[in-house]
């Protein structure tokens, strides 16, 4: 709705001067135009934008865009070169298209909740929204591929991604192993992947936790100072076959050390390892706090913001933040001006076809919109 904007503006539990930090985190470098797509003139404006756009991205439930008059066939007729990207919870052929799709539900459906955690723990969600982020990333890759193809064919394509498909893609190794071996993954005794060879997992230290990844048994024995370990677990096959015994052995040694002592000893022996950071520790870890991993922007209402930088570096340079996350309808007037509708702005706002921020200029208060 024009009044409230997209659901993401109200998502999360932390707000800065009324603005969701989740929305602020994910929507920099965008403009916002508020349209009422159920108003004929609001729909007409959307159609005019479609006529000159390269890509359209939507994540309504299947069928909603068709009912609004902005489905693939209608849009393709308006602009055959446009790449149409659609994200949904379960895809267009789901058994029940009315069911809402969401990150946690996709993790649940695909077994990811069961894969995460230990044998004695309940199904455990991944901390970050992995289905949402991976689906969005795959949709962006699909859009780029379709744009590349358009340069050759001159025609846009219909690109679809759903959360369940994205989570299956995330769990490809486990799913393919289970489908072709007939054996379901066994949840580990310590947090870690159930489908990868040992040693692999998270162990408690005296003051925290350490993650130990793929390494040779020779290096692990040296790092732990356990001279008998190599005789009992001479190779990866023995370690993997007796994973639980190995985990108990490693945990017993690691529990006697501080996290820093453990990481130093394992590093010196060439063992792949890392401290398990909580959020205060993460912000000071030199591997994470590298300046190019962050950037700063000023938001007109939320104030100065520190954001996560784009992980892509181009020629050694960080991709910039050109603008902060937009206010609802912040660029409505700007976009309507570009469409040659500047004389219609006040009428369209009064009619409810579009939304624009209230003016803060007393001289323009009678007009009602900010220019």
Automatic annotation (TrEMBL):
Molecular function as annotated in GO: CoA-transferase activity
Annotated InterPro entries: CoA-transferase_III_domain, CoA-Trfase_fam_III, CoA-Trfase_III_dom3_sf, CoA-Trfase_III_dom_1_sf
Tree of life domain: Bacteria
Keywords (A to Z) from UniProt: Transferase
Protein name, per record: CoA transferase
Organism: Candidatus Ruania gallistercoris
């Amino acid at each position: 709705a024009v009044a409230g904007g997209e659901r993401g503006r109200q998502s999360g539990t932390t707000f800065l001067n009324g603005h969701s930090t989740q929305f602020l985190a994910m929507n920099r470098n965008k403009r916002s135009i508020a349209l009422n797509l159920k108003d004929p003139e609001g729909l007409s404006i959307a159609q005019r934008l479609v006529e000159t756009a390269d890509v359209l991205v939507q994540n309504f439930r299947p069928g909603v865009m068709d009912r609004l008059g902005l489905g693939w066939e209608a849009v393709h007729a308006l602009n055959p070169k446009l790449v149409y990207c659609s994200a949904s919870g379960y895809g267009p052929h789901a058994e029940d298209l009315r069911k809402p799709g969401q990150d946690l539900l996709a993790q649940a459906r695909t077994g990811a909740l069961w894969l995460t955690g230990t044998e004695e723990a309940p199904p455990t969600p991944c901390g970050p929204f992995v289905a949402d982020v991976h689906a969005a990333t795959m949709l962006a890759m699909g859009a780029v591929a379709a744009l590349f193809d358009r340069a050759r064919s001159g025609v846009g394509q219909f690109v679809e991604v759903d959360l369940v498909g994205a989570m299956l893609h995330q769990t490809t190794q486990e799913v393919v192993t289970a489908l072709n071996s007939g054996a379901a993954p066994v949840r580990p005794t310590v947090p870690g992947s159930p489908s990868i060879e040992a040693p692999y997992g998270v162990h408690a230290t005296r003051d925290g936790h350490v993650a130990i990844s793929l390494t040779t048994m020779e290096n692990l024995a040296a790092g732990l100072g356990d001279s008998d370990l190599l005789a009992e677990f001479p190779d990866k096959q023995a370690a993997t076959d007796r994973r639980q015994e190995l985990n108990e052995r490693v945990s017993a040694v690691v529990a006697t050390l501080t996290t820093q002592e453990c990481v130093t000893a394992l590093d010196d022996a060439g063992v792949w390892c890392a401290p398990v950071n909580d959020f205060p520790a993460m912000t000071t870890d030199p591997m994470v706090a590298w300046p190019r991993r962050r950037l700063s922007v000023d938001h007109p209402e939320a104030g100065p913001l520190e954001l996560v930088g784009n992980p892509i570096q181009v020629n050694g340079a960080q991709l910039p933040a050109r603008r902060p996350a937009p206010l609802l309808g912040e660029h409505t007037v700007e976009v309507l001006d570009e469409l040659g509708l500047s004389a219609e702005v006040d009428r369209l706002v009064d009619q409810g076809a579009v939304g624009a921020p209230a003016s803060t200029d007393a001289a323009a208060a009678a007009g009602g919109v900010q220019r």
